[in-house]
């Protein structure tokens, strides 16, 4: 039971923890620095206002349940949780180094040493692999939700969004303001899947390399367009080839072509570099938890209310469900053979781009192919993207998203913590894209389909809602 005692020293005791001070405030509550009275250790206690409705209450409790199930050196560890006074309290490891966003901002314009970037990224991948192995999608991976311990170890935190943020609209709806980390498939109303987390991690990796967000724009149209084209400013040339190549792969616009975390850690070109940065005990942890049992996955999935699960490509154990068996689940939305690019096509047809064709038809050498080898490119699906096209003609995206976004202290949702100042938020303006990397090869498929192993249906159709809004505006 929760006990709140106001002591003479003005410090507060809650369920065996003495509250020292407030670490920070989020949209759902506060983070408090507390000390356990039993072991004198310092922890962070998240105080979350419990919503009134039962279903929302269950969502709020998920963070505690999920965190309690994740035991990994690169995930913020769970200590306890309890409820009282209309709040949920989650006690967790205190990460002295704060969050990665703060750390990036502290750098001013000084780049991180390469080894630091590789070490942190390797640890992020290790933590993400752990949750993916448990069939959980983080859904809100960003530098603000990744923490640093006193030993400089990276820890993934904030599982409050796992299974809650499930559409572009919901992303736009959050306090974050700008959905910098939202992948093309989410804008395209496709299901969130494990590769969507990979996209977000790619954004964090890019931030570590450049101290900038990869995708930022003065307008919603422009932002969506850039994300759907995978178009970002070039990386500093001093970065090793492996990192440049990895970022390019992580920003493949079709999730099928993006490597999974398992691929990145085991068979990607960068794997050896990353593995060398993972401590021995973490490597052992990887080996120990590298395969998941279906019972464990099912338990977590049923807790999350997930309907659709696919098997991991790494399964070999007979105790695990076969991929074919799960593929028979007819409810699962399938990715089309080419890139999923409805939103991209619509935006392109809406004459928003100054650059050339999105559908190169000439055969080209892939960086996966040996020198001299050529292959035919797969074609973009050119069917008329009627829906978003007509939507864009009718609706002002900035107006629409203004309705969805909760602005904090009057902040412009399109200006993020790592954005240069000075953009505007009108729909029509497209900044000159001349220093953007528009690498056609990145738009081409390199199937990693066997690794797009689980996903969730997107229950919300943001385009439909925008259509409705524009109809309402006319009438
Ligand atoms: N385990 C932790 N160790 C150290 N600092 C933490 C920890 N958890 C959260 N914080 C810090 O506490 C502050 C508030 O965190 P909290 O998660 O409540 O909100 P937020 O992430 O800022 O916003 P939101 O919850 O709306 O996403 C942030 O500055 C965050 O960096």
TrEMBL record:
Instruction: Give the catalysed reaction(s), semicolon-separated.
Output: L-threonyl-[protein] + ATP = O-phospho-L-threonyl-[protein] + ADP + H(+); L-seryl-[protein] + ATP = O-phospho-L-seryl-[protein] + ADP + H(+)
- Where ATP binds, per the record, is at 46
Q: What is its EC number?
A: 2.7.11.1
Q: Which cofactors, by name?
A: Mg(2+)
Residues annotated as domain Protein kinase: 17-271
Task: Give the top-rank taxon of the lineage listed in the UniProt record for this protein.
Answer: Eukaryota
Which ranges are annotated Acidic residues under compositional bias?
447-459
InterPro entries (alphabetical): Kinase-like_dom_sf, Prot_kinase_dom, Protein_kinase_ATP_BS, Ser/Thr_kinase_AS
MF term (GO), any:
metal ion binding
Task: Return the annotated region ranges for Disordered.
Answer: 356-385, 408-475
Q: Which UniProt keywords apply?
A: ATP-binding, Kinase, Magnesium, Metal-binding, Nucleotide-binding, Serine/threonine-protein kinase, Transferase
Listed PANTHER family: SERINE/THREONINE-PROTEIN KINASE NEK3, SERINE_THREONINE-PROTEIN KINASE NEK3
According to its UniProt record, which protein family does this protein belong to? Belongs to the protein kinase superfamily. NEK Ser/Thr protein kinase family. NIMA subfamily.
Report what the protein is called. Answer: non-specific serine/threonine protein kinase
């Amino acid at each position: 039971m929760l006990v709140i005692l106001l002591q003479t020293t003005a410090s507060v005791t809650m369920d065996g923890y003495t509250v020292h001070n407030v670490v920070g405030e989020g949209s759902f509550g506060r983070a408090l620095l507390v000390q356990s009275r039993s072991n004198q250790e310092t922890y962070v206690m998240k105080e979350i206002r419990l919503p009134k409705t039962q279903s929302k209450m269950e969502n709020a409790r998920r963070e505690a349940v999920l965190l309690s199930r994740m035991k990994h050196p690169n995930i913020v560890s769970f200590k306890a949780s309890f409820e009282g006074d209309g709040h949920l309290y989650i006690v967790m490891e205190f990460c002295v180094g704060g969050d990665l966003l703060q750390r990036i901002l502290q750098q001013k314009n000084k780049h991180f040493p390469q080894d630091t970037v590789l070490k942190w990224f390797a640890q992020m991948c290790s933590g993400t692999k752990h949750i993916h192995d448990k069939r959980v999608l983080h859904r809100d991976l960003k530098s603000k939700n990744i923490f640093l311990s006193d030993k400089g170890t990276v820890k993934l935190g904030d599982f409050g969004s796992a299974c809650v943020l499930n559409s572009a609209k919901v992303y736009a709806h959050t306090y974050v303001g700008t959905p910098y980390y939202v992948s093309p498939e989410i804008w395209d109303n496709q299901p969130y899947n494990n590769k969507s987390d990979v996209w977000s991690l790619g954004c964090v990796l890019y931030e570590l390399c450049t101290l900038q967000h990869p995708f930022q724009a003065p307008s919603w149209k422009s932002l969506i367009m850039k994300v759907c084209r995978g178009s970002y400013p070039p990386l500093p040339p001093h970065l090793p080839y492996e990192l440049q190549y990895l970022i390019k792969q992580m920003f493949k616009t079709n999730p099928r072509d993006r490597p999974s975390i398992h691929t990145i850690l085991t068979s990607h070109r960068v794997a050896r570099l990353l593995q060398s940065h993972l401590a021995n005990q973490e490597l052992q942890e990887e080996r120990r938890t590298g395969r998941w049992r279906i019972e464990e996955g099912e338990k977590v999935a049923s807790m999350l209310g997930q309907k659709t699960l696919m098997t991991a490509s790494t399964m070999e154990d007979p105790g695990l469900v076969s991929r074919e068996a799960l593929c028979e689940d007819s409810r699962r939305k399938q990715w089309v053979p080419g890139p999923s690019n409805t939103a991209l096509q619509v935006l392109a047809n809406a004459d928003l781009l100054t650059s050339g064709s999105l559908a190169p038809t000439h055969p080209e050498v892939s960086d996966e192919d040996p020198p001299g080898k050529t292959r035919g490119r797969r074609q973009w699906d050119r069917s008329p993207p009627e829906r978003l096209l007509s939507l864009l003609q009718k609706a002002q995206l900035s107006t629409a998203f203004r309705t969805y976004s909760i602005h904090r202290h009057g902040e412009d949702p399109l200006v993020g913590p790592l954005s240069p100042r000075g953009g505007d938020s009108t729909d029509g303006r497209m900044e000159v894209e001349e220093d953007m990397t528009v690498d056609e090869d990145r738009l081409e498929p390199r199937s990693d389909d066997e690794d797009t192993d689980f996903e969730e249906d997107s229950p919300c159709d943001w385009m439909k809602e925008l259509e409705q809004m524009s109809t309402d505006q006319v009438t």
